[in-house]
Specification:
The chain is an alpha+beta fold and about 300 residues long. The protein has two domains: about 45-165, no CATH class; about 170-295, Nuclear Transport Factor 2, Chain: A (Roll), CATH 3.10.450.50. Helix content is about 20%, strand content about 30%. It has helices at about 20-35, 115-120, 170-180, 190-195, 200-215, 290-295, and strands spanning about 45-55, 75-80, 80-85, 95-100, 130-135, 140-145, 150-155, 155-165, 240, 245, 250-260, 260-275, 275-285. The relative contact order is 0.15.
């Protein structure tokens, strides 16, 4: 079932700008969202603790690394179980991803100015997407600095850890798309879409290019006036990846975005290209699709 948005009301405009029909549609969307079945992702990841450096919050003059023996050891994430050196092992892990400003990194332990301290540790830009594993014995933040790398603070040491999985799963491919998207300008522009082209199928990239090539009349609201990659106008600051549904060379990965006490789910549809999973479309709870939004309107 598809709920259309009335002409003259953009998909992500505040309700006060929309007609009563649009308000009813948004209320029905809420029904769809609340009934959306969602099972959390059970990651199968292997990371290697590569090297450490004295943390900037350590006592001045500290030169010796605590727990230096962690270097070279593995962190194995298997769903809710994390097998790792004793201080990092955990049970009943819940996996959440948070867009973290510099001031929030390492539990707020960076000295001011936090942005400068973060860059000195190898974080080229802010904010950073953080993978938070909340376990029975504590919470562990892995600050993702690249597709394969993360920084982890433990006691008075910042450790660099590297993912050793050579091929990304569909879930990891979606995670990388969101890492790049949510830590930069999230506005839907020609430039921001081009920066994500390597993570999208060529077909979807061409459809997006066609959307931006079409002129928009001054008296009309753009079809896309928010962020189609998170289905929002007020950008979310955290999300949870759901369990993948894979059929041959196609896969669907649901992602639940949390904002202001309200959750909504977006389905990412992926296509396998060689050994690489690429996003080919997005489906929203009301039946609308990303491809449907970027395709030419009838009669144009």
């Amino acid at each position: 079932m598809s709920l259309g948005i009335p002409i003259g009301c953009g998909r992500w405009l505040p309700v006060v700008f929309c007609t009563a029909t649009a308000l009813l549609a948004l209320q029905l969307v809420g029904v769809f969202e609340s009934a959306w079945a969602f099972e959390p992702w059970q990651p199968q990841e292997r990371w290697l603790i590569e090297s450490g450096r004295v943390a900037p919050w350590a006592k001045l003059g500290t030169t010796v690394l605590e727990n230096a023996g962690l270097a070279g050891q593995a962190i194995l994430v298997e769903g809710k179980a994390v097998t790792a050196p004793h201080s990092l092992a955990c049970e009943q892990a819940q996996h959440t991803f948070i867009v973290m400003p510099a001031e929030g990194l390492f539990e707020g332990g960076l000295p001011a100015p936090a942005g400068r301290a973060a860059r000195a540790l190898g974080m080229p830009s802010m904010p950073v997407l953080t993978w938070r594993m909340t376990c029975l014995n504590g919470s562990f933040d892995y600050h993702l600095v690249s597709k394969q790398g993360a920084l982890l603070g433990l006691d008075h040491v910042v450790w660099h850890v590297r993912r050793t999985n050579l091929e990304l799963s569909p879930e990891a491919a979606v995670l990388e798309l969101l890492r790049q998207h949510m830590t930069r300008d999230m506005a839907f522009t020609k430039g921001s879409a081009a920066r994500k082209a390597s993570l999208l199928t060529q077909s979807l990239t061409r459809a997006i290019a066609g959307y931006f090539a079409r002129p928009i009349p001054r008296d009309e609201v753009p079809v896309i006036d928010g962020d189609p990659f998170t289905n929002s106008q007020e950008y979310p600051s955290s999300f949870t990846v759901g369990a993948v549904l894979r059929v041959g060379s196609r896969a669907t990965v649901p992602v639940r975005f949390d904002e202001e006490g309200r959750s909504k789910v977006v389905e990412y549809r992926l296509q396998l290209s060689g050994t690489t999973w690429l996003v080919d479309d997005l489906h929203y709870p009301d039946g609308v699709t990303f491809r449907g939004l970027v395709k030419p309107a009838k009669g144009r």
